[in-house]
Design brief:
Blueprint lengths: L28 E6 L3 H16 L3 E3 L7 E6 L4 H17 L3 E5 L5 H7 L5 E2 L5 H11 L23 E5 L1 E2 L10 H5 L3 E2 L2 H13 L4 E5 L14 E2 L2 E2 L2 H9 L4 E4 L12 H6 L5 E3 L7 H7 L5 H14 L4 E8 L6 H14 L3 E6 L17 H24 L5 E10 L2 E6 L10 E3 L11 E9 L4 E4 L1
Parallel strand pairs: 1-2, 1-3, 3-4, 4-5, 6-9, 9-12, 13-14, 14-15, 18-20
Antiparallel strand pairs: 7-8, 10-11, 16-17, 16-19, 17-18, 19-20
Helix pairs in contact: 11-12
């Protein structure tokens, strides 16, 4: 599980399911450190599932592994540094390390810092990763017990799972190198996504978190074709997934006009009333310098229309402060826009140069101390909005999903909260009968800046 106190792009997923850790004598064993966003976590799960099918055991620590795979993040320079640190730690603790993931698109960068790594592969190069593992730790499968795993390896708790619907991105934002690392949009067939979702729900998953680089664009490369009764379009896919009986949460949704067609599904209860939309900024000139659609005013109109259809909708977004050329007036426009938009969940990053990004060459880079000041002011504004919107929920009844239970209480999430990203709802009395994955109704008693407290 990713530690909840870390950003997803800095978190390390580790195996926590004891049923996966049993090892027969002589069985080759692989460890995995998974950095990066949930999309990378899905890649890690796929790699481990393939290795399990080939007869490998999975180790929860360095000492029990014959080799370690480090799935890296390369989106920001700070994330690259985190990845290099993780590779160095694995080399010190184990010695046999294979590197994959987004930073693997720059093999010389990795081998320059750590020449002793056994192999480097890029993002979603599953066959190359398997070949590298075979070379480092040859498989020794027992065909009677190893080649038919009951289900895929999961790096998340059993009651929720990430569901990747596409890979790559067709945008050319100047601050981003994801299209260079992961390529252009490649959508999975809708019937394959629905089949995977059905298996997850049958295995006990209560919440499906739909992810991709650009969820709104799903199926565009397939020309929204229908195959085996399922159309490759985000609206149709959301409707199909919503029919399975689990919570369906949509992440990374760009505000294209057709997004408004998703809102009635939320009002009907088929999909959670939650949109994760990367607005990035509000001033049209900054958006143009980012090479993003400069339509902040129309975005406010869209938000108003969404809330008119589904008043309970939760809107979360991330923003970049201190982008090259950002003036104080442009930043103030962003603060004013936040006041008007009243987004429920907001995060921000201070702009960083990323090797290969076109934004590096823009003039008028903002000094570090100015970026920090704007970040602090932005988060103060966002925190005040969050606190006020949560305070309005005191006294209401909400459905929550239980994530964990200990002797202090139950940690839950409302429909407005994605795991490890948003807030929590805590139950500190009468929780003895609760178990992870339960969905129960609570009355909200208290609100903080980001979290809620309630009772059954």
């Amino acid at each position: 599980m990713n530690p909840p106190d870390l950003r997803p792009d800095l978190a390390r997923a580790r195996i926590s399911d004891d049923s996966l850790l049993g090892r027969r004598e002589g069985q080759p064993t692989i460890g995995m450190v998974s950095l990066g966003c949930p999309k990378a976590l899905v890649d890690s799960e796929r790699i481990l599932t393939r290795l399990r099918a080939e007869g490998y055991a999975i180790s929860p620590d360095y000492k029990g592994a014959d080799a370690v795979i480090v799935n890296t993040c390369g989106f920001l320079d700070s994330a690259k540094a985190e990845s290099l640190d993780a590779i160095g730690e694995a080399l010190r603790e184990n010695g046999k390390v294979l590197v994959t993931g987004c930073l693997g698109a720059e093999p010389e960068y990795i081998t320059g810092a750590h020449p002793k790594v056994l192999a480097v592969t890029g993002p979603h190069q599953y066959e190359a990763v398997l070949d590298a593992v075979h070379a480092a730790v040859p498989p020794q499968p027992d065909p009677f017990i190893d080649l038919l795993p009951a289900s895929g390896v999961s790096l998340t708790p059993r009651h929720y799972s990430y569901l990747k619907i596409s890979e790559g991105c067709n945008h050319k934002c100047k601050f981003c190198i994801i299209p260079d690392m992961r390529g252009r949009l490649v959508s999975r067939p809708a019937h394959a996504i629905v089949r995977e979702a059905e298996k997850l729900v049958q295995a006990g998953v209560r919440e499906l978190l739909v992810i991709s680089q650009d969820t709104s664009a799903y199926g565009l490369d397939l020309r929204h074709a229908t195959d085996r009764g399922h159309r490759a379009h985000i609206t149709d896919l959301a409707r199909d997934l919503g029919s399975l009986g689990a919570w369906v949460r949509l992440h990374y949704v760009y505000p294209y006009p057709h997004v408004r067609d998703l809102i009635p599904l939320m009002a009907e209860g088929l999909v959670l009333p939650y949109l994760d939309i990367p607005f990035q900024h509000a001033h049209p000139d900054v958006l143009r310098r980012m090479a993003r659609p400069a339509a902040a005013a129309r975005t406010l109109d869209e938000i108003a229309a969404w809330r008119a259809i589904c008043p309970d909708i939760t809107l979360r977004s991330t923003f970049i402060v201190g982008y090259p050329g950002e003036t104080e007036a442009e930043f103030q426009t962003l603060l004013d826009w936040l006041d008007e938009a009243q987004l429920d969940r907001v995060g921000a990053f201070q702009y960083e140069n990323v090797k290969g990004a076109r934004a590096n060459d823009l003039p008028d880079h903002v000094p570090a101390e100015v970026k920090q000041d704007r970040f602090d002011r932005f988060m103060e504004k966002a925190q005040a909005i969050s606190e006020a919107r949560l305070a309005a929920k005191v006294g209401t009844r909400l459905e929550v999903i239980v994530d964990s239970v200990d002797d202090q209480g139950a940690t839950c999430r409302t429909k407005a909260d994605a795991p490890e990203i948003d807030g929590n709802l805590f139950i500190d009395e009468g929780f003895d009968t609760l178990s992870p994955g339960d969905i129960v109704t609570v009355t909200v008693d208290e609100a903080g800046e980001y979290d809620l407290w309630g009772r059954l």
